[in-house]
Design brief:
seven-stranded mixed sheet, two-stranded antiparallel sheet, 11 strands, 21% helix, 3 helices, alpha+beta
């Protein structure tokens, strides 16, 4: 008896295929999904801390990015042919009316609030955003109560990664004169 060795590989999806599946009702309407590098991931259920982190960050960023930007909360970004993440917050150029017919293809700042998704946000999402040349990506780390700032993407990775704590403040690259206290982003437990 002879044994044949086959090459077993995963099946990766394109954004177009992913959107077609959604339109055809392939996914349950309540499922929270996103496409990252051709793989469809099921997003974790939001804890109250996670939701509070999104609200606090949204509130702080709306004051800083009042003109010329749209703050999008948990809406898709079209990043290449194989990725359609739904970041907790994306600051995109323009106004919401600019995206009626297509999702934004870039952002000046992306924020993910992480509790149970911390490793996913640090590895897969950071790599995705760096490859898409998103200049600034923040992880609001609800577990360690800090802000992980990712900047200067190069060759699919961020080269600058300071960690800011409760008493620190942060200035977004797209708004360098703004001063946001990290404590204002961190929900109290």
């Amino acid at each position: 008896m002879t044994t044949t060795v086959t090459d077993v590989r995963p099946r990766f999806w394109t954004r177009e295929e992913y959107q077609r599946l959604a339109e055809q009702g392939f996914f349950h309407p309540e499922e929270r999904l996103e496409l990252i590098a051709g793989v469809i991931y099921k997003k974790a259920r939001q804890s109250p801390i996670h939701a509070a982190g999104i609200q606090a960050t949204d509130y702080a960023l709306r004051r800083v990015f009042a003109d010329g930007f749209d703050i999008r909360s948990q809406f898709p970004l079209a990043l290449g042919q194989d990725s359609e993440p739904e970041p907790d917050i994306a600051v995109v150029p323009g106004k919401w009316e600019d995206y009626i017919h297509s999702h934004p293809t870039s952002a000046v700042l992306i924020v993910e609030v992480a509790d149970s998704s911390l490793l996913h946000d640090r590895k897969r999402k950071a790599s995705l955003y760096a490859r898409a040349e998103i200049q600034e990506y923040w992880i609001l780390n609800a577990v360690k109560r800090c802000l992980e700032v990712f900047r200067n993407p190069r060759d699919g990775a961020y080269t600058v990664r300071p960690v800011l704590r409760d008493g620190d403040s942060v200035s977004p690259l797209a708004r360098p004169k703004a001063d946001i206290p990290v404590a204002s982003l961190l929900p109290r437990r």
